[in-house]
Amino acid sequence: MRAVYTKRNRAFFTIMLITLVMTVCLSLSSVVLAGNQKKEEQTYKYYTSVQIQSGDTLWSIANQYCAGSGMDVKEYIHEIKQLNHLSNDQITSGQYLTVIYYSNEYK
Questions:
Q1: Burial, 101: exposed, middle or buried (Cβ in 10 Å; 0-12, 13-18, 19+)?
Q2: CA 93 to chain CA mean position, Å
Q3: What is the CATH number of the domain that holds 66?
Q4: Distance between CA 31 and CA 33 in Å, rounded?
Q5: Do residues 73 and 34 both lie within one domain?
Q6: At what angle do helices 58-65 and 73-83 cross, to 10 degrees?
Q7: Do residues 59 and 49 lie in contact, with contact meaning Cβ atoms separated by under 8 Å?
Q8: Least confident stretch, 7-11, 42-46, 93-97
Q9: What confidence score (pLDDT) does residue 16 get?
Q10: This model's pTM is above 0.70
Q11: What sign does the CA torsion over 86, 89, 94, 99 have?
């Protein structure tokens, strides 16, 4: 009977040890992930007004301002059109547009 009790104890302690090791590993991995997320810089969204110059297009403006937005140029143009109530892609020299830009600097 004593041998059975010892085998049960070993099995119990083995299971407990495995559970403890897995818990520690999961905890450490979540700490590492949280640390990596904190290292990413905060990005702030800002708005500015730009005057359209001769030769400017929505595409050229989007290429200039869309960096850091997480959007591709086509998505950025769509957002600029909505923001400025544009029904098509036509813009004219001298016109002002509100554009979005992104910065890691808090202003």
A1: middle
A2: 35
A3: 3.10.350.10
A4: 5
A5: no
A6: 110
A7: no
A8: 7-11
A9: 82
A10: no
A11: positive
